[in-house]
Design goal:
With 124 residues, the protein is mainly β. It has no helices and eleven strands. 0% of the residues lie in helices and 51% in strands.
Length: 124
C-alpha cells in the first residue's frame, strides 16, 4: 500500500485546512487509516483514525470537536478536515494504513504503511 498525503500549508489561527491521503490500494492489508502528527522536537502523536468498513472513528482529545476524519471508499482516500486551527496544531501530518483492532487504533505501531507527511503551519 502506498500512501500520498497532501493539503498542508500555512494558515492563520482560527482557519481551516483539509488534508487528503490517497491509498494506492485498499486490500486485506488495511482495514483502517489514521492521521498522526509530529511537531518539532516532539514525538509522533495520534490525531484521528477511521475504519474502512463501518466508518467508526477515534480522535485525540486535543482535536475533538475541531477535526473530522472521513473516507471515500470509492477513491481509497481519507480526509482530515481541520477547523479552528491553533498554533499548537503546527506539525508534520502523516497518514497511515494498517489493521489495528479497536483498542490499538491510536497506536502508531498498529499501522504498517505510512505516507510522506505534509506540513501544517498555523500562525498565531
Amino acid at each position: 500500500v502506498q500512501l500520498q498525503a497532501s493539503g498542508g500549508g500555512l494558515v492563520q489561527a482560527g482557519g481551516s485546512l483539509r488534508l487528503s491521503c490517497a491509498a494506492s490500494t485498499r486490500t486485506f492489508s488495511s482495514n483502517a487509516m489514521a492521521w498522526f502528527r509530529q511537531a518539532p522536537g516532539k514525538e509522533r502523536d495520534f490525531v484521528a483514525a477511521i475504519r474502512w468498513s463501518g466508518g467508526s472513528t477515534k480522535y485525540a482529545d486535543s482535536v475533538k470537536g475541531r477535526f473530522t476524519i472521513s473516507r471515500d471508499n470509492a477513491k481509497n482516500t481519507v480526509y482530515l478536515q481541520m477547523n479552528s486551527l491553533k498554533y499548537e496544531d503546527t506539525a508534520v501530518y502523516y497518514c497511515a494504513a494498517g489493521r489495528p483492532i479497536i483498542t490499538t487504533m491510536t497506536r502508531s505501531s498498529a499501522y504498517d504503511y505510512w505516507g510522506q507527511g505534509t506540513l501544517v503551519t498555523v500562525s498565531s
